[in-house]
């Protein structure tokens, strides 16, 4: 992440990841999730926080989930079932359960199919937020598979190139591929210029926007560096047409096709407009052994990722990284030093602990 | 395409597509291709030119192919064979044949596997240039499937974010998905800011670059609007890190993993550095019926694409388009009016006709 999204030093409270994990499990169980689902849901959020992807960890989303469970907008005990299936494909009804624990079941099924046949893909409809996409794609790694995850909901974020209204969510993609000794390749991005959660995070830390990060309420890209305005629409990555926003728009549309249309929900912009939409997902597992020798693949990945990591840097930069490398480094640091949360986040945990009568201790 | 890439009006020569197709078939046959392969190769190039994607039509690439056949760098009669196979995956040895006619065979195999099992994916190694990716992805459409194509070669184009050397080709992606009455969704893009062929085309028509389209020879993004310098490196889409170049870089790396590493060739930047590299490809066909009812899917696609097409435009714009719509409109126009080529292209055809002793007539 860009530095501007980091919690300012004066506001940082370090918490051991296992303490935060236990607190999060307690909260999910209180919301009605089974112990297994609560542990899985917490694992998705803690994996985000350990990887330095705090935009998708406990800071932003957990309070939203708690409110949605309170409003009975998420089904705490969904009956996830297969509605269509072939040798290598399936469509699941998520029964309005939280994607954090619903989607890993879909990826498990995709992996099982890939193990037998070489590849597997599963869509999910009527589901909810899945957290950091990388978590689900990374499930494929230990099986010597490449993982893909994409997800879409309703049109609360992105204005297409040259349009004057929102038509998409942030429609993110995540690919993961294993290596032998190098940190695995894990590429997880929103098709907006900036992930929605990072915009909220920037508002919290008072960070300025870059030109062409968002459009005004009419759809015109804001080309000044400024604070986030009250009313805005996220631009597709690229920002302006001249800088390739049609590419962000196109990947967003492809995500929509795989996630909501292929899963049978129809396009998000025709669903009821709510900040808490039902979502569709698409996961795919590609078994390396179906194409080439997995040992050769992992050796080649080491040569590939090592080559990128050791590439000559441009003037003013001290190194080149690849997707997944800084995150793997951050895990090492945070497992020892704890995770730096904004004190406002810790205050929320204390208040919800009192409100729900829980017993966890963060410090 | 942006207007600046169009052939200037004063230099335009209109040619009927069928005349250009016959000329192109004659040239490919003279290069040693079988009549069937020559017809297929010409179809890929003419489909580009009809769709208004002249960067990938006969104007730029055909002369390169002819030279490569003359230098025996392309095998005119490749023995394309399966080197690994499962129910839904395969890896093909392209035997150094031209990707224009090798890759359709890979996509046919992917479609056949998807027809039986719900999905199919095929990699190709030791192949050559495949032309416009959309052609191959679009092969899936008539089978009620979604098509994906991606391809990589050696590092002649893209400098990764913050790097000071080229590590990638233009590493493009193309997705295609069918609709019922709307023009199909066809999304075909380079992961560089601008496709390599479009940079050559811009040089031919003398069009200026936008800021952050390319980096200088050290890797620093050129932020002025200027003519293309002699020495440059293409930036990943996004351009600068602040504008999301790590997204273009990540999709380029994913392309490399699927195309060259999964096909067993190893990363392109470790292959011999030549402007005429061997290439790896990845194609995938996704059978809609494996996830949802294809009739419902196509109706939903009409509602989706129609909704985008009829979205409110931003101030200063008269309409919103989706990927594949302008290209479908261009086909209608060019089938009637002919294809506008730069007169320099027509001169090349006349000279190659004389050189190879061919009989075609363009006008």
Topology:
The structure is a homodimer of 363-residue chains.
Chain A lengths: L11 E4 L1 H14 L4 H16 L10 H10 L10 E5 L3 E5 L5 H19 L1 E9 L5 H6 L6 E8 L20 E5 L7 E5 L6 H10 L8 E2 L17 E2 L10 H17 L17 E9 L6 H16 L15 H13 L1 E4 H14 L7
Parallel strand pairs in A: 3-4
Antiparallel strand pairs in A: 1-11, 2-3, 4-10, 5-6, 5-10, 6-7, 8-9
Helix pairs in contact in A: 1-2
Could you say which structural class the secondary elements and strand pairing of chain A correspond to? alpha+beta
CATH homologous superfamily (4th level) name of chain A: Malate/L-lactate/L-sulpholactate dehydrogenase, NADPH binding domain
Reported CATH architecture of chain A: 2-Layer Sandwich
Largest sheet of chain A: 7 strands, mixed
Number of strands of chain A: 11
**Strands across the major sheet of chain A, in which order?**
2-3-4-10-5-6-7
The quaternary state of the protein chains shown equals homodimer
From the N-terminal CA to the C-terminal CA of chain A, the straight-line distance is 26 Å
Query: Which range best describes the helical content of chain A: under 10%, 10-25%, 25-40%, 40-55%, 55-70% or over 70%?
Result: 25-40%
Count of domains of chain A: 1
Biggest interface found: A-B, 89 and 88 residues
Q: Unreliable runs of chain A, pLDDT <50, ≥5 residues?
A: none
């Amino acid at each position: 992440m860009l530095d501007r999204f980091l919690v300012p030093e004066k506001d940082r409270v370090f918490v051991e990841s296992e303490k935060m994990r236990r607190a999060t499990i307690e909260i999910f169980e209180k919301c009605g999730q089974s112990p297994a689902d609560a542990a899985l849901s917490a694992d998705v959020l803690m994996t985000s926080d350990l990887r330095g992807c705090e935009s998708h960890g406990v800071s932003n989303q957990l309070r939203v989930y708690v409110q949605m469970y309170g409003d009975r907008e998420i089904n705490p005990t969904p009956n996830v079932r297969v509605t269509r299936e072939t040798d290598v494909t399936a469509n699941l009804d998520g029964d309005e359960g939280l994607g954090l624990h619903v989607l890993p079941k879909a990826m498990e099924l995709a992996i099982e199919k890939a193990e037998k046949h070489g590849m597997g893909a599963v869509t999910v409809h009527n589901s909810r937020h899945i957290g950091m996409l990388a978590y689900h794609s990374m499930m494929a790694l230990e099986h010597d598979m490449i993982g893909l995850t994409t997800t879409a909901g309703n049109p609360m974020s992105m204005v297409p190139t040259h349009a004057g209204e929102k038509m998409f969510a942030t429609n993110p993609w995540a690919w993961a591929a294993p290596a032998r000794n190098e940190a695995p390749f894990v590429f997880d991005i929103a098709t907006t210029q900036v992930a929605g959660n990072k915009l909220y995070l920037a508002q919290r830390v008072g960070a300025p926007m870059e030109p062409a990060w968002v459009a005004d309420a009419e759809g015109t890209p804001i080309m000044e560096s400024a604070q986030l305005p009250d009313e805005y629409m996220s631009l597709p990555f690229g920002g302006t047409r001249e800088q390739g926003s049609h590419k962000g728009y196109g990947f967003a549309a492809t995500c929509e096709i795989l996630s909501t249309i292929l899963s049978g929900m129809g396009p998000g912009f025709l669903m009821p407009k709510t900040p808490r939409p039902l979502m569709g997902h698409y996961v795919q597992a590609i078994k390396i052994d179906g194409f080439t020798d997995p040992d050769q693949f992992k050796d080649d990945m080491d040569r590939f990722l090592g080559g990128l990591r050791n590439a000559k840097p441009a003037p003013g930069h001290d190194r080149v990284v690849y997707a997944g490398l800084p995150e793997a480094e951050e895990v090492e640091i945070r497992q020892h030093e704890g995770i730096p949360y904004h004190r406002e986040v810790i205050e929320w945990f204390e208040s919800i602990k009192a409100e729900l009568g829980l017993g966890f201790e963060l410090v």
